[in-house]
User: Fold these one by one.
Assistant:
Number 1:
Amino acid sequence: MIRESIALSCPVCAESLEAAGSPARVLSCPAGHRFDAAKQGYFNLLTGRGTTFREDTPAMVEARARFLAAGHYAPLADALAEESTAVVPGGIPRILDAGAGTGYYLDTVAGALEATRGARPEAVALDISRFAMRRAAKLPRTRALVWDLWRPLPVADAQFEVLMDVFAPRNGGEFSRVLVPGGVALVATPLPDHLAEAIGPLGMLSIGAGKEESVAAALGPAFEPLRSREIRTPLRLSDDDAVRLALMGPAGHHHDEADIRRRLAGSPLPDVVTAAFRLQVFRRR
Ligand SMILES: C[S@@+](CC[C@H](N)C(=O)[O-])C[C@H]1O[C@@H](n2cnc3c(N)ncnc32)[C@H](O)[C@@H]1O
Ligand SMILES: [Zn+2]
């Protein structure tokens, strides 16, 4: 049975975390731990906890939002939507997007499920970047939480029918805990040749492409592999697109727009750059 709402758990004491207000402005637990919404509507559950992780900056998040809005990675979003409508058990599922970024893929998947199942799924978006969660908080029926995926997730056991992880860390133990048995995990990773033509000219760090088996190993024995497909899509990038592509990734921590434009002037991109993704679908046993 699919319930109406998603039970969150307090990141300090693990008791239940309840929302007050509509839209919620406060999350609090019976022990008195309390988290106020940021004015953009997301909740930062990492307050007061040091993290060594460097969050994506506003400029990086802006670059990602604009690059994705131009539709360059729409074939991946469509594939995620197709798999979710085909594989997710009937009813209105609840979705967790782990490392959701701006929420672009979550919006596509939730929209596709809404179109086929008749109501918009409830969702939780988790990301360590506050600037990403500002944007994800705008999606309908989505609770956007700043959190570190390597810590125990701030949700009760068995709360989701769908988990999405698109180019984000994979915490298999926690993913299996928060999915219902029979729930589905959709995991996207870059293939080894993803953006190969652009890495040199844009000064991008080449992304450590996880092998198919290593994704399965990271998820662990609770996940049965159902499907795996490759998605290759030719990108025709303007200079502005290319700058956004460079700034939205880890290179955005090390280079600014002027650096990238200088590089592009010296070594322009070829007419076509290939994006190459793998999408793996798993069932929680
Ligand atoms: C390559 S981006 C992908 C974002 C989004 N899924 C997309 O494809 O547009 C990776 C995301 O993972 C987030 N991330 C990285 N490490 C994280 C961690 N330990 N906990 C939570 N989020 C993390 C980053 O902030 C970033 O938004
Ligand atoms: Zn608490």
Note: The chain has a mean pLDDT of 94.
Number 2:
Amino acid sequence: MAKVLYCNSLVPGCKFEAHGNSEEEVLGDFADHIAIAHNMVNISEEILAMISKAIQEEIRLRAARA
Ligand SMILES: [Zn+2]
């Protein structure tokens, strides 16, 4: 199941989305992004917990009209 993390859930206004096939992949992408874009190099346990909670199943919206 694909996973997605919207940076906007942690850093309001940021349009970055991390995608991956597992939580680890998403975290890896996101860690690179916040290090570069938000200057957050040291990710504390608390921040990591917040990030993990913000990861969602990627839902592909379909126009399901009966
Ligand atoms: Zn961001």
Note: The two ends are 26 Å apart (CA to CA).
